[in-house]
Write a structure and sequence with these properties.
single chain; 263 residues; alpha/beta; Rossmann fold; seven-stranded parallel beta sheet
């Protein structure tokens, strides 16, 4: 058992939003660990570029898709189903954000973010359920990994009201889906902190030094950090885990304290 405890060799995975950022890091990690990986992204050129870059690590196929609508989710899963009869791992990573002041935050900033960050993981998982069930075995269930955020666990210092709310929602939806889909499909979430990505480009440029200084481990996330977490949740090592939300933030959320000063 132990030599294969963390193995995903031969498994098939779909990573949404896999052409860049955390999704790309997860796809690379799964490929390096021996999985066959599908990635999706809205932009065809980004898909093609990521497929070319990631092909050095293993069998990769990129599918352009817009998962912000139910039709887009079903079309993506339909394309995957045309190429494989089993899906062992679904990583719901595609996400978006919106920033504005409290008084100026628009309705479209809610509709777009909640549609992509909450409705899409639900719709994708529902559409993929037959493929996930086909891949599941009593000793090794299929896996769904939702990508949340520590912004759904603590109050962020930015005006990203719909984003933080959506990530708190996906954390709870993870638990709800875990209860619904077990024991054949296990559903867990990763709540990343700061990682180098397009979404974090602005905050890291503005506050990167402060984030590093505030981190108990003294750095931001790296590819191997998120890749290891995804491989772990996809492997036999976590067949006794479902409904969990794992903070992956160098301790930013888990060791947060309030300095009340000295008396």
């Amino acid at each position: 058992m132990f030599p294969d405890l963390f193995s995903v060799q031969g498994k098939t995975a779909l990573v949404t939003g896999g052409s860049r950022g955390i999704g790309y890091m997860i796809a690379e990690g799964l490929l390096r660990a021996g999985a066959r990986v599908y990635i999706s992204s809205r932009k065809a050129d980004a898909c093609a570029a990521a497929e070319k870059e990631l092909s050095q690590y293993g069998e990769i196929k990129a599918i352009p898709a817009d998962v912000s609508t139910e039709e887009g989710c079903r079309a993506l899963i339909g394309e995957v189903a045309s190429q494989t009869s089993e899906l062992h791992i679904l990583v719901n990573n595609a996400g978006t954000t919106w920033g504005a002041s409290f008084d100026e935050f628009p309705d479209k900033g809610w509709d777009r973010v909640l549609g992509t960050n909450v409705k899409a993981p639900f719709n994708l998982t529902r559409a993929a359920r037959p493929l996930l069930e086909a891949a599941s075995t009593p000793g090794d269930p299929a896996r769904v990994i939702n990508i949340g955020s520590i912004d759904g666990m603590i109050v962020p210092g930015f005006g990203n009201f719909s984003y933080s709310a959506s990530k708190a929602a996906i954390h709870h939806l993870t638990r709800h889906m875990a209860a619904e889909l077990s024991p054949s499909i296990l559903v867990n979430a990763i709540a990343p902190g700061p990682f180098p990505s397009k979404m974090m480009e602005g905050p890291l440029k503005e506050l990167g030094d402060q984030l590093v200084e505030a981190s108990p481990v003294g750095r931001i996330g790296r590819t191997e950090d998120i890749a290891a977490a995804a491989v772990y949740l996809s492997s036999h090592a976590t067949t006794y885990m479902t409904g969990a939300v794992i903070p992956l933030d160098g301790g930013l959320s888990t060791t947060l304290g309030i300095d009340l000063g000295s008396e």
